[in-house]
């Protein structure tokens, strides 16, 4: 009897064990890809980028100027500067305001040397320091006017201890205002150095526009963009670039809004304003955050052309940020805002015989920039926005029916404001409705099927700003980059499969924000982190890159049990045909922590016997890339055998792209 009981107990244990094995060894998720039934065309603009000057993305970031407050135009005109008198120098500095004569760049400094002893030194702290690299060349320039006597100017970069690592020879200032330029190399790499402008001799001079640029800028343009950051944008292969924002477009009030006409032409004549992110968050105040507009609309258009992205400028529609002041221009005074939009189209596309086309040619670009779309407002909402949008639309559609209009759906992806704007803008036949979603991981996973049953029609969706926000409490690391985890990237990829699967509805999408300084950020997560000398691509960056470089030209039907694969057993998928390069592209996202097997059955001929499998994954959901450790999460690639039926084991928390030759 005891032996029978033991056998029965053993059988029960085996049954439990076998049941457990069946749970962990579940049958594969089956997915069928109809490679012989291409569907909706995928827009070449599908995956793009969104630039806003937040987190010191422009001044102190992509715009390569190393001098902060170079023309003494900050409200505190000597912010960022320090005066030192050495070896008996008797000198003074006076900031002069000539606002009646020059409203855009009213201030300059007068330096007076009362004796010819020693040195008078003006030190600029840069943007959280001045970063230079060993054996690299730098261009120092300064505008100066000799008032009296004989004064010489030289420049030097010093390290954190004040020791020179690069310097120029003294240059004598003579005559009226002109720009003096000197090139020099640095003997050491310094992350947080300073720039010293040294004055010797006896006399008085006026100075303005003190500047230091690396010679190795993007495309080697003098006074241009930081090369490593611009290259990271090019490596994304974006279909479009939305600029200049974002909330920057609105301003906290209308006086502080972005006005594109003030950002073109001579950089010395571009009017500086306070960056709204200077005071937006009390816990992340940045009192030295201003917009010099050295990176202006001409440079934005030029960058779009450089990286092969269609330009998507966003313009103020007569409304300031509704979260801040809710200030609006009265309807009977909206014409100047509309005229700015009409003039921008002429600036971008107009013949060189037109006023604004001629200016574009004068700036060095006689050929048009081929502008095809323009945004009216940013995250505006309510009847006041609709009223102003209708005025814009009537004028723009009449003058330029070839240019599509992008319109707001408000700051949220649902709710009464969203529903009202979405329905209204469809009625108005807007080209694109711009939807934004900054949400937690669960939202992204749940909304992978968001557009499966969306209304189809002439008005398309632009997913203009999105990022998965991991709750702060879950972070184990205090580094700024720590919110850009592999888990966040995987959740975004899950949503992106749904965007791609519905390419007939969603025709553009861009992660936001784009850039952030590790020592001067206001918002996170962000796609690319940087400091004075380094930059790092996040896991989120690699997801964007994988989708953009493996876009395809048409959607292919994919299904499991007759349904789209959007969360069944934590698997998400989409597939595309790349007719241009004769490829089948299958994207598979595993949002679970465990390995999952997916059985892929392809309908149609695949001539290749091998396929490329690109994978982005991490064993720790909260793993991220940092400036110090940039390669923790990176895509890997391998070649696999490929047949009509394939069982693929997907790592936990992974994004997988299978590229099959056709």
From TrEMBL:
UniProt entry keywords in alphabetical sequence: Glycoprotein, Hydrolase, Signal
Group of enzyme by EC: hydrolase
GO BP terms: L-arabinose metabolic process
InterPro entries the UniProt entry points to: Alpha-L-AF_C (IPR010720), ASD1_cat (IPR055235), CenC_carb-bd (IPR003305), Galactose-bd-like_sf (IPR008979), GH (IPR017853), Glyco_hydro_b (IPR013780), Glycosyl_Hydrolase_51 (IPR051563)
Keyword Transit peptide applies: no
Domain called Alpha-L-arabinofuranosidase C-terminal: residue spans: 464-654
EC number: 3.2.1.55
Reactions the enzyme catalyzes: Hydrolysis of terminal non-reducing alpha-L-arabinofuranoside residues in alpha-L-arabinosides
Key word Hydrolase present: yes
Listed SMART domains: Alpha-L-AF_C (SM00813)
GO MF term set: alpha-L-arabinofuranosidase activity
Cleaved signal peptide residues: 1-25
Family: Belongs to the glycosyl hydrolase 51 family.
Protein name: non-reducing end alpha-L-arabinofuranosidase
Organism expressing this protein natively: Mucilaginibacter yixingensis
């Amino acid at each position: 009897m005891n032996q029978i009981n033991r056998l029965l107990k053993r059988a029960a244990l085996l049954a439990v064990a076998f049941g457990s094995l069946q749970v962990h060894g579940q049958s594969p998720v089956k997915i069928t890809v109809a490679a012989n039934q291409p569907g909706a065309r995928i827009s070449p603009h599908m995956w793009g980028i969104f630039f806003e000057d937040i987190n010191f993305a422009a001044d102190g970031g992509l715009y390569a100027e190393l001098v902060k407050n170079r023309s003494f135009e900050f409200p505190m005109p000597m912010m960022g500067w320090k005066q030192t008198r050495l070896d008996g120098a008797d000198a003074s500095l006076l900031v002069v305001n000539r606002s009646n004569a020059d409203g855009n760049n009213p201030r300059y400094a007068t330096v007076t040397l009362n004796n010819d002893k020693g040195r008078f030194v003006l030190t600029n702290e840069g943007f959280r320091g001045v970063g230079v690299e060993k054996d690299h060349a730098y261009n120092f320039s300064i505008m100066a006017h000799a008032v009296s006597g004989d004064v010489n100017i030289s420049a030097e970069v010093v390290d954190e201890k004040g020791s020179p690592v690069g310097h120029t020879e003294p240059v004598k200032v003579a005559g009226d205002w002109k720009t003096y330029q000197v090139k020099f190399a640095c003997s050491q790499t310094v992350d947080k150095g300073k720039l010293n402008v040294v004055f010797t001799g006896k006399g008085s001079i006026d100075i303005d526009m003190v500047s230091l640029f690396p010679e190795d800028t993007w495309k080697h343009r003098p006074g241009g963009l930081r090369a490593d950051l611009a290259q990271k944008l090019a490596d994304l292969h974006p279909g479009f670039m939305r600029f200049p924002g974002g909330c920057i477009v609105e301003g906290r009030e209308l006086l502080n809004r972005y006005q594109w006409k003030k950002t073109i032409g001579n950089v010395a004549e571009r009017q500086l304003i306070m960056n709204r992110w200077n005071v937006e968050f009390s816990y992340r105040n940045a009192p030295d955050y201003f917009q010099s507009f050295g990176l202006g609309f001409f440079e934005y258009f030029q960058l779009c052309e450089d990286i092969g992205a269609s330009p998507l400028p966003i313009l103020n529609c007569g409304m300031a940020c509704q979260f801040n002041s809710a200030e609006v221009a009265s309807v009977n005074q909206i014409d100047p805002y509309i005229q700015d939009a009409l003039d921008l189209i002429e600036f971008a596309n107009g013949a060189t015989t037109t006023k604004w086309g001629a200016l574009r040619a004068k700036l060095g670009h006689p050929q048009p920039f081929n502008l095809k779309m323009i945004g009216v407002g940013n995250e505006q909402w309510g009847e006041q926005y609709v009223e102003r949008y209708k005025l814009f639309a009537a004028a723009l559609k009449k003058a330029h029916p070839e240019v599509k209009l992008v319109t707001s759906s408000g700051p949220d992806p649902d709710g009464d404001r969203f529903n009202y704007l979405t329905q209204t803008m469809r009625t108005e036949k807007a080209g694109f409705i711009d939807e934004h979603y900054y949400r937690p991981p669960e939202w992204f996973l749940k909304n992978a099927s968001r557009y499966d049953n969306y209304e189809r029609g002439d008005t398309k969706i632009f997913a203009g700003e999105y990022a998965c926000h991991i709750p702060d409490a879950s972070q184990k690391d205090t580094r700024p980059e720590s919110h850009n985890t592999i888990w966040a990237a995987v959740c975004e990829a899950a949503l992106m499969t749904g965007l791609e699967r519905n390419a007939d509805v969603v025709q553009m999408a861009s992660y936001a924000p784009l850039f952030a300084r590790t020592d001067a950020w206001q918002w996170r997560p962000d796609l690319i982190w940087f400091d004075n000398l380094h930059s790092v691509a996040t896991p989120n960056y690699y997801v964007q890159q994988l989708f953009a470089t493996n876009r395809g030209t048409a959607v292919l039907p994919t299904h499991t049990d007759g349904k789209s694969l959007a969360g069944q057993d934590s698997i998400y998928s989409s597939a595309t045909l790349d007719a241009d390069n004769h490829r089948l592209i299958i994207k598979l996202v595993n949002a679970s922590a465990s390995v999952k097997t997916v059985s892929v059955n392809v309908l149609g001929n695949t001539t290749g016997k091998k396929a490329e499998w690109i994978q982005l994954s991490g064993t720790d959901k909260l793993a991220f890339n940092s400036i110090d450790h940039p390669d923790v999460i990176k895509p890997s690639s391998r070649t696999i055998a490929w047949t009509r039926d394939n069982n693929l084991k997907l790592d936990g928390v992974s994004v997988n792209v299978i590229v099959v030759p056709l």
